[in-house]
Amino acid sequence: MAIKNSEQIDYWNGEVGQKWVRQADRLDALLEPFADAVLQAASLKEDEYVLDVGCGAGALTLKAAFQVGDRHGALGVDVSRPLLSLADRRAAERDALPPRLKRPTPLSSGPSDLSML
Ligand SMILES: C[S@@+](CC[C@H](N)C(=O)[O-])C[C@H]1O[C@@H](n2cnc3c(N)ncnc32)[C@H](O)[C@@H]1O
After folding, report:
1. Does 74 contact ligand 1 (Cβ within 6 A)?
2. Which residues pair with residue 114 across a beta bridge?
3. Which pTM was predicted?
4. CATH number assigned to the domain covering 7-116
5. In the chain, what are the domain boundaries?
6. pLDDT block averages, 10 residues each, the chain of length 117
7. 61 CB under 6 A from ligand 1?
């Protein structure tokens, strides 16, 4: 069954996206073992650059950003405005923490070292 991109955009910007935001902490806790398995398999190195496509509220993106450090960081992209808004708030909160937890920064050109889909 094919799912149109526009349907996904509507879906994740509607009630489902809002619900995911409301339950983000619980969902992150539920998904954390999978996020950790992805990061363990990737064995990221400092200074690598990560692209997280479909980052949602950014839990995995921020973990990856912490691992690679500030030089390139991790960029999360998503079609859901409510989820990206929460991801952005979370990233901004990390600015108050030690430098390695800074907001993920985009890389203007070149390939990423790891793309998570
Ligand atoms: C099941 S959620 C997972 C979110 C996140 N990766 C996590 O593990 O918490 C799927 C995410 O994919 C995003 N998504 C769906 N279609 C997309 C597309 N074409 N491009 C980018 N993101 C997309 C949704 O908006 C949603 O945030």
Report:
1. no
2. 50
3. 0.84
4. 3.40.50.150
5. 7-116
6. 79 96 98 96 92 90 87 83 89 61 47 68
7. no
C-alpha distance across the termini of the chain, in Å:
19
Q: Whose CA is nearest to atom 1 of ligand 1?
A: 56
Amino acid identity at 80: S
Burial annotation 53-75 (CB, 10 A radius, 16+ → b, else e) = eebbbbbbbbbbbbbbbeebbbb
Closest CA to 14 of 81, 90, 98, 89: 81
Of all protein residues, the one whose alpha carbon is nearest to atom 12 of ligand 1 is 54
The angle at the Cα of 90, spanning 75 to 34, to the nearest 5 degrees, equals: 65
- Give the count of beta carbons closer than 10 Å to the beta carbon of residue 105: 15
Q: Under 8 Å CB-to-CB from 39, ≥6 apart: which residues?
A: 60, 63, 64, 67
- Find the helix or strand (DSSP H, E) in which 76 lies: strand 73-77
Contact 115, 51 (CB under 8 A): yes
